Amino acid sequence: MSAKRKDIVLFAVIVSVALITFVAIPVVYLSKSKPPGGLSKGQESSWLYGKSDARWTITEYADLECPYCRTYTPQLMQWIDGQTDVNLVWHHFPLQMHGAATLKEARLVQCAGKLGGGKAFWNAIDQVLKHTRGDGQGLVTSIALSGIDAVVLDRCATLDADVALHVDQQLQLAQQAGVTATPTIKITDTQTRHSVRLEGPVDEVSILSAMDRLAFESK
């Protein structure tokens, strides 16, 4: 086979692999979307993880007792730390199978944000994921957040009706959107409001491929 012929064959193989990778993204839907739902006024930007002016927003539908979320969320946050144009929004999706523990933890992190802002919110998520036994068994030990009294935090998680309503509303929004598993992510192009939803612990290659697809469709 001539060198020219080999180059043509090699190029064809590369293109084929790229197309297979692109098409194989586990896309659930592609549509225009509203800004991330379930956040109170003023919280949508302050509770973003990453740059507020990023083009791409990843919404993670997650359960704090989910063993897959426990592994995936820190990896996703670490990946976003290395990106210049991607941020993250957490969307509570406490699964019924994980009982009271997941609801209590969702309210805990929500209260952390209410009492201490975005930094406390994400710190609480990190601590809960590190200290939960998972699968509905709850926390091994109480979480400790700088500047927030543990008793006040626990009282908020137990008694604050607005926090409980917020978590319930996010659960309902996720169900209405057709989310059925955790983790699930939604990637939104903030320039066009087009989005794609991917199920499972999606790797960075699939995330970037989905972004490329959304960017291509915006042209």
Task: Kindly summarize this structure in a few lines.
By secondary structure, the chain is of the alpha+beta class. Helix content is 52%, strand content 16%.
Named at the architecture level, the CATH assignment of the largest domain is: 3-Layer(aba) Sandwich
Mean pLDDT: 85
Evaluate the radius of gyration: 20 Å
Low-confidence stretches: 2-26, 33-45
- What percent of residues are in strands? 15-25%
By CATH, the topology of the largest domain is Glutaredoxin
Based on helices, strands and strand pairing, what is the structural class?
alpha+beta
Query: CATH class of the largest domain, anyone?
Result: Alpha Beta
Number of strands: 6
- Count of distinct structural domains: 2
- What best-fitting shape do the alpha-carbon axes yield? globular
Q: How would you spell out the order of helices and strands?
A: HEHEEHEHHHEEH
Give the termini separation: 40 Å
Q: How many H/I helical runs? A: 7
Question: What's the multimeric state?
Answer: single chain
Largest sheet: 6 strands, mixed
InterPro entries: Thiol:disulfide_interchange, Thioredoxin-like_fold, Thioredoxin-like_sf
Pfam families: Thioredoxin_4 (PF13462)
Transmembrane segments: 7-30
Organism: Pseudomonas protegens
